[in-house]
Structure formats: C-alpha cells, structure tokens
Amino acid sequence: MIDSDLETIHTVVPSYVREKVAQIVREEEITIEDFVKYCFEKELKARGLL
Q1: What is the SS3 string spanning 1-50?
Q2: What is the pLDDT of residue 4?
Q3: pLDDT digits (tens, 9 = 90+) for 1-50
Q4: 16-22 contact pairs (CB < 8 A, 24+)
Q5: pTM to 2 decimal places
Q6: Could you tell me if 31 and 42 are in contact, meaning their C-beta atoms sit under 8 angstroms apart?
Q7: Does residue 38 contact residue 24 with C-beta atoms inside 8 Å?
Q8: The predicted structure's pLDDT at residue 1
Q9: What residues contact 25, with CB distance under 8 A and at least 6 apart?
Q10: Separation between Cα atoms, residue 34 and residue 40, nearest integer Å
C-alpha cells in the first residue's frame, strides 16, 4: 500500500542518540522510521495536537 500522506523530515542527532535508537529498533524489530514516527505521534498526542 502506498501512503501518499507521508513526508520526509531530515534531522541530525548526536551519535549517542543514534546508537540508542539503533539498539531500540533492533530489540523491537522495527525500522528507525517507524520508531521516530511513533515518538513524534506520542509527543503530539501528549500535547493534545493529535
């Protein structure tokens, strides 16, 4: 399925953050993209924006 509502966000993070994210996605068997999407959505919901 193609979701045409997806947009690309490019960002830069410190290497220690990238290493921790890589560890999480390996353990959870998900992609970095799915993890970041989850984090964004969780924060937006917490702020009442979603």
Answers
A1: CCCCCCCCCCCCCCHHHHHHHHHHHHHHCCCHHHHHHHHHHHHHHHCCCC
A2: 77
A3: 576 788 899 999 999 999 999 999 999 999 999 999 999 999 999 999 99
A4: none
A5: 0.81
A6: no
A7: no
A8: 58
A9: 31, 32, 34, 35
A10: 10
The pair of three-digit structure tokens given for residue 33, joined into one six-digit string: 């993209």
Task: For the chain, give the number of residues.
Answer: 50
Q: What's the rounded Cα separation, in Å, for the pair 40 and 37?
A: 5
The radius of gyration computed from the CA coordinates of the chain, to the nearest angstrom, equals: 13
Assess contact for 31 and 25: CB atoms under 8 A. Answer: yes
Torsion angle (degrees, nearest 10) of CA 13, 17, 19, 20 = -150
